[in-house]
Amino acid sequence: MEDLKPEAAYIVDIEGARGADIIVNMDDASQIPAFVESLFLALGATVQVHPVFTPEDMPRAMEAPDRAAQKYG
User: Fold this and answer.
1) 15: number of CA atoms within 13 Å, CB side?
2) Which residues contact 29 (CB under 8 A, 6 or more apart)?
3) What does pTM read for this prediction?
């Protein structure tokens, strides 16, 4: 947890096993491998990543879907 520097961490039950929901702020999705690799190697963890964004991120987040709609729609 020291290396991850999470904004929040919750110990939870995940399908009957011990688990955690860890909230980490990233500047870019390319940071995901660096964050999860320590969990794979140190804990042998199974990791699910669920990127989220704030309303302020919305304009930038919609650029790719808008380009795809123009190209393929």
Assistant:
1) 1
2) 51
3) 0.68
